[in-house]
Amino acid sequence: MKEKLFFFSLKHPLLYILSLAIVLRILAVIFTSGYMIDDHYFNYYNIPLKWLDNPWLVYGVRLALGAFSLLIITLSYRITKIIADKTTALEIALLLTIWGLAPYLSVHPLPQTVMLPFILYGTLLIVKQDNLLTNNEIEKSHRTTYIISGFILGLGFAVYYQSLIYFIGVIIALIILNNKKGAIMTLIGYVIAVLLTQAIVDLIIWHRPFVNMIDFFRNSGDYLFSNIQNWNFEATSIFVLLFYWIPLSILLFVGFFKVWRKYMLLFLPTFLMILFYTVFPNRNAIYTFAIVPTFVIAGFVGWKEYYKNSSFWSKNHLIVKTCYVIFAIINVVVLLWTYKLISYD
Fold it and tell me: Which domain holds residue 22?
């Protein structure tokens, strides 16, 4: 049996990683207690919460969300394969799979996680176009691709309004890369998606456009500015991202800032989101999951490039291996904790 699994992992590595991700999510469906929700999904459309009393329905929703979250792994793999190589892409897919909080967050209806496949797919289309242009594989960018990308990013906005920060970063990055037509087309697609999801849908339900969006930004404004007045660096949400990836997070940050210019389309949107979470920390800091995939992609790819060209690290590779081992141990503990198989009480 072990030999069959070993040969299967060699022949179909991505499928093997996805199989592991499926197992971890099924365990999360069964063992995680409580039901993390976000009012964004329920109060706005007056959806009653009584249905949460039905355990089979809850398990069904968890399974559906867990299955949808697998796109986070596959899309991250595809983005990495474009900017790096297959080996690095598989390593990132594995890192995102074994990250201890991923299965737990993926099976709950949280906008920060549900929007990620939309953000990643929109990013994938733009990164692919940029790569083709850079390598002279196409003479000019395909406008339709940018419109589709913007539309999908707009769907991500409909799920999680704070992803607007990410979209702004994408547009600025395209302008910096002298792709103004791409920026305009992406913006057009984004506006179409916002009009469809926030104007037309609200007109049907509330007979007024942009009801939820206006209400959200109005309420968020007071919270954000009160937060910045009482800002405490030690309490910023970004520390959660650092903690659960320690000590690998140190290497990721080194790589992230090493290749900021080379991978502008990944770096700038993610950096703006990091800055947003740092200046305006969220009460539920684990929601920084929204920036984990693109941060890990840019950071890990950047780190590997730096590692290969560094004489110091070529002589001290044991340090890097130790970081991976510590990261794995921490996240096994986190996994067991989220499944309630261990407790810190």
Answer: 13-338
